Amino acid sequence: MNPLLLAFIGIPALEVFFMIKIGGKIGALNTIFLIFLTAIIGVYFAKLEGLKTLRSGIISSYQNKIPLYEIISGTSIGIAAIFLIIPGFLTDTIGFLLLIPLTRKFLINYFFKINKAKNKTTNNKTLDGEIVEKKKDDI
Length: 139
What we know:
The protein has helices spanning 3-26, 28-62, 68-85, 89-99, 101-121. The chain is an all-alpha fold.
């Protein structure tokens, strides 16, 4: 089965399951309030982290460094904000994990290690060569 289709079906099912379980423990209105509260707090912190990352990227640019980590970090903060806006506790947990700088750095390094390992395992059968043109008189 396609992993994207599985995620598209599975994540909302898990969200509904967690909402029912938590709603049974703390009540329906408290659950709805908690969902709105996590979205508001999450978007606020996403804005703060985004501005901090933007400042860091500008400083890196002034120092003639490529702000690669800041670009990836900014993208993950944007994904975190989307996860926090989506109602549910599972997506809120993932969103908050992406907002915390320590866990964000850990996750970025983890995914780059996997990506580097995949690139090393692929067999690159490219030969490097040089074209040398000789004139007819030189032969």
